Task: inverse folding
């Protein structure tokens, strides 16, 4: 039986690193050569996004275990974007990558189930391996996602502590001496522990930002069965040293996402003279080396 | 300049009621005549959803101010569902209805902006008037939604207190003597008050469940400039008496959603012998009368 936690552990071991490449195709940041001067329809732009993301995938597939398309940028293009997202996911799979759809969905009952069915598993229209989920609606809102993920051998990552400064407004509210995010963490760890794979982790993971290193230490300790998806490395200020505490003693337990820092590396002065694909490759290799040095 | 709060106030005054019809097309609950016996592709099912939702719209357009398609059920059908959602929204507009897309989106920075641009305003692929938004990522995650809504004369409803029992896990956590949802409420009221229309309400609203009548009383008092979107009437147990406190002295300030109770009224014994459209009309008229009696 397929188990997302085991698939992820195997992919991390095979590639020897825990880099997740975020596929966030923003039109204004794309390599200029992909955007002709004439006005683009949403459908044209969706084709450009597909071409760009698939190009990134071709570069990173031999290097990293997993990619994370950001649903919002595809949704911005309407139905054409929905088609493009499916094509990008299929291409990633054809190159052997795991795929997290970063859509931060959250709802209750049969509505939550519909979201889960939309994204997770080979029976779904988008066929992702994993989906990010928002916990604000509470425990009964997570259950349908967990149930569908179990049924389809897929995974979810629940937002626990996000990487943005404003996350504090709710996530850090203290009650009985503990912040709100630690309650979410406790619930998520319970779900992970109840749904373990052979690797010792569950298919229910947690999103924990790289920008709060102390909380990473605390949450790694509190959540021994929970894979972490760690955003905020690079562009948002998180360093390899900051994310090191997300890993267990065997170097498992976390994947560290980088979107802009990899896919838009062509905009950096040091990569100005090389093809954008080479910039993506160099930036990916640099991040792999950076994480390795911090985990040594 | 178009202002969502004023559009909503005008629509409520014109129709004389505050009913929001939720368009949640679940395949298994559709009138049997719409589902032929043979297996349906996702694209076939998307056509059925469009036909069904547009049929509901034709019935309710002369009666109510607003409809609320649930994004999850369309997303479950993949790209075909994305197309269908756009068609349903366009049809609702052609019949003079306002449209809230219930997608509970939430993210940060340019990602949040992409979600807002995807759904809000006539420049967007889906052209909705309003979008539901999840606040777990904090204040800076709401700003891009507010900014895009302002720019496009659209609105947002932020989840404050949801109608499901599990909502308590986070929303009711007490800190300094107040529950978490009241912090969200305070922030949302601030955004509403900073973005007022001529009607005295802002274009930033709040989702407050019908199932917690005491909290409706408390929040109506604490949020004098905030439109409420009230789920949980009917199928989830909320009564007209429960939702009455959501309204101001002029009968404005809230719209009360009903999805299953209206669109799947054909399944109720009393409507067994009439066309499903007649069941929708009767259920809508019954809810209008029920709300009126409680607001008298």
Result:
């Amino acid at each position: 039986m397929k188990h997302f936690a085991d698939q992820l552990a195997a992919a991390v071991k095979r590639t020897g690193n825990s880099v997740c490449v975020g596929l966030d195709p923003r039109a204004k940041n794309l390599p200029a050569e992909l955007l002709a001067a004439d006005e683009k329809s949403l459908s044209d732009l969706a084709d450009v996004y597909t071409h760009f993301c698939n190009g990134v995938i071709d570069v990173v597939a031999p290097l990293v275990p997993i990619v994370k398309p950001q649903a919002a940028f595809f949704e911005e293009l309407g139905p054409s974007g929905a088609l493009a997202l499916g094509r990008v996911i299929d291409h990633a799979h054809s190159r052997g990558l795991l795929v997290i759809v970063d859509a931060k969905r959250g709802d209750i009952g049969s509505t939550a189930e519909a979201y889960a069915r939309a994204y997770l598993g080979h029976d779904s229209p988008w066929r992702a391996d994993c989906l990010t989920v928002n916990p604000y609606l509470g425990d009964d809102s997570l259950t349908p996602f967990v149930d569908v993920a179990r049924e389809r051998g897929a995974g979810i990552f629940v937002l626990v502590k996000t990487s943005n400064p404003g996350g504090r407004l709710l996530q850090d509210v203290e009650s009985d001496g503990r912040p709100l995010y630690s309650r979410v963490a406790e619930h998520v760890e319970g779900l992970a522990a109840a749904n373990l794979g052979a690797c010792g982790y569950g298919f229910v993971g947690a999103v924990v930002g790289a920008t709060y290193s102390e909380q990473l230490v605390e949450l790694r300790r509190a959540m021994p069965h929970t894979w972490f998806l760690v955003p905020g490395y690079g562009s948002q200020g998180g360093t390899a040293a900051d994310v090191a505490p997300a890993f267990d003693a065997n170097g498992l337990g976390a994947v560290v996402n980088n979107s802009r820092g990899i896919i838009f590396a062509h905009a950096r002065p040091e990569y100005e003279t090389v093809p954008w694909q080479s910039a993506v490759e160099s930036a990916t290799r640099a991040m792999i080396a950076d994480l390795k040095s911090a985990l040594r």
Remarks:
- Residues 172 and 178 of chain A are 8 Å apart (CA to CA).
